[in-house]
Amino acid sequence: MRDVLDELLAVWRDGETAGVATVVRTMKSAPRLPGAAMLVTPDGTATGSVSGGCVEGAVYELATDVVSTGRPVLERYGVSDDDAFAVGLTCGGIIDIFVQPISKRTFPQLADIAGDIAAGHPVATATVIGHPDESWHGRHLVVWPDRVAGSLGSDRADQAVTDDARGLLATGRNATLTYGPDGERLGEGMEVFVSSFAPRPRMLIFGAIDFASALARQGAFLGYRVTVCDARPVFATPARFPDADEVVVQWPHLYLQSELEAGRIDRRTVLAVLTHDPKFDVPLLQVALTADVGFIGAMGSRRTHDDRLGQLRDLGVTEEQLERLASPIGLDLGARTPEETSVSIAAEIIAQQWGGSGERLSRLPGRIHHDQEAGDELKEQDGVGPDGGAARQPGRVEPEAVVRFH
């Protein structure tokens, strides 16, 4: 919904009704991820996309009908190859799209949600997309870290979904969750799509060098909130890093430690250490390798890497912690320039995030898309967390419905 929020809010403020179609589940190959949305305004204008152009025409007609009838609809596209060609889903995948009418009457909290998204405050929306009682369809629950608004239909359902939505919000994920009709754990009958609007994930780049400038551009392009940090004020200037959201002059390890203590670092955060100077790198990596972040990479030659590992071991960093370090940073693309190197680094971050191999797709069999996050959630469903420990039992997560939200 983020992609169409401005247009949707304008319709909402005018007191009119818009049709909003949202991808809530994908199977096999699909052009858009869960959370992708398309808006149809009262004057017939379409904004956004749910399939990269494949089924937009059919969804447009459905959204128009939903606005007219006022009844939300969950529709599946691409069930077979013939059907896929009939509606244009030529990739052969399957997508479930929930289409609902949104107005001040059906979604009174929309302005509050838009304000929090604009301010970078975390908020999630939970929408009933399937239920034995059709009167539940399209009901919304808005979940913040410290409060909720709206209702799905019962206190029990609200409490169960609130708990799980906050877990998804903490990691910026979207998911379709399955419960019993009254929110019973491990039950069936009610499906709820949770869309998380978390602040942008962070990319912290240490070392104010040419490679950092190129990587800052890549990070901004990928949707990260980019910080460049260096202890040398002559190099760490906003003018040298126009694509960074902030440039910090401070010793890297002290800055990282302060951000950790302030709670501004999470599992989506990626750290790129580009200084390849041991007086900066070693104390920084000593702090970084104890942090719960998504990616830690460091630039340097093989010899620099080996020397750095030796110094970190002398400081008590464990072998398990050292295994988390991607060094030399980046994938083997044959990169030479800072710009090419930044693509290499970004590619490694993406590969680690989604479980990719970095191999050429033309040489790999099987599916194109990876679903690492969905796999982790399904492990939690069975009582085992991604780290192998015990996990709480959430509503069942539908396969391929969980994505990292940027």
TrEMBL record:
Domain XdhC- CoxI, chain residue ranges per copy: 12-78, 117-180
Protein name per UniProt: XdhC family protein
PANTHER family xref list: ALDEHYDE OXIDOREDUCTASE MOLYBDENUM COFACTOR ASSEMBLY PROTEIN, MOLYBDENUM COFACTOR INSERTION CHAPERONE PAOD
Organism, as annotated: Saxibacter everestensis
Annotated spans, Disordered: 372-406
Domain XdhC Rossmann: 203-349
Pfam family, one: XdhC_C
Residue ranges that the Swiss-Prot or TrEMBL entry lists as coiled coil: none
Biased composition (Basic and acidic residues): 372-382, 395-406
